[in-house]
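Can anyone check this?
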Amino acid sequence: MTALRTEISEIVTGLGLFGFRDLQRALSARPRYITNVDDAVYDRLEQALADGKHADVFRTAYANGAAFARADDALRGRPPWTVEWKGPHRPPAYEQIPADLRVDHVYLISCKYGSNILHNASPWHLFAGALAERSKNYGDWFVEAAPQSFQAFYSVVRAHIDDPSLPDRVDRLDPVHRRSLQRSLPGRWPAELRSDWKLVAYDIACASADRLLQLTSGKGNREELLWRMLRLQAAPYFVLGADMRGEPLRYRVTTPWDFRTRYTVKSVDLWGEPAGQPTVKWRADVIDRERDQTRIVEGHIEIRWSHGKFAGAPEAKVYLDTAHHRVAGYEVIS
C-alpha cells in the first residue's frame, strides 16, 4: 500500500486543483473527478488531517495544487475535468517521466517532497549505459569497476572476520556468503577497516566516473547525458512539492528542444570524490543565451550496497545539489 505521506502529497495536490474554499471542504466533498481514489483512501486522509502529524505536507500540497490551477503556465484558472492519480500501481515498463498525476489527459505532475534525488539507478544503467536504457546486467559493480583493489579489500575483510566458509575470491560470493558478511559487519566499518575502505571507495568512484566519461566522450553525448540526469524528456511535465527545508517547489521541466533553444552546454564533467562511500561529483556549465550568463548545475552520485555491506547489488543514487529554481531547463511556474 502506498505510504500515507505519499498519498497526502499526491492526492491533496490534486484536490487543490478544483477551487474548493479550503482543504476540509475538498476532503469532505470526495470528488470523483480524481480517479483511483476510493473511500478507504479518503478515510485515511481525513484521519491523518485530524491527527495533525503531516500538517506541513497537507498545507503545502494543497497550496501547490491551487497555485497550479491559477498559473499562466498551467490551468490558468480553468477547473480540470479529470485528475488521474497514478497510485500504487507498478508501471508495465521503465517510465522516463516520473508522473504521479495526469490532468485532463495532458498535464503530467510529479509530486516531490523533501528529496533532491534525481535517479535511483543501478550502476550499470548509469555508468555503463549513461541512463539511456535500463541495463540487463546485475553483476557486482564494485568488482566491475575496481577488480584488483576491491579484491584486495575483500581479502582484508575475510581475514578480519576469520570465517573459513567464505570463498577466497570476492566474485565467488553467493547469497548465503553475502548474508553472512552482512551480519558480521553491521553499522559502521570496524576501525581497522575504515582506511582501507576509503581507499577502495575512492578507486571505485574514480573508475566509475572515468567509465561514464569515456562512454560519453563526444560533446553531444555529454549534453544528452545532462538531459537524462535532469530527467528532461520529449514532453514537458511539472514538479510540485517542497525542498529539503520545506519551501514550496513549483516548476516545469522543459524538453531537450526547449533546452537547446535557450542554452548552450559548455562542459559536463565527472570525477571521484574521497568520501565514506564511493562518491562521484558531477558539474555542468551551461550558457544561458537569454540572460547572457553562465549557469552551473552541480550534483553527486552515491554508489552503495542496497541492503548492507556486501549484501544486495550496489545502487547509484544521483543527487541534485543546485537549488531547483537555478537549474537550466527547470522553469519556475508563474
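Reply from J.R.: I decoded it. The CA atoms of residues 69 and 78 lie 7 Å apart.
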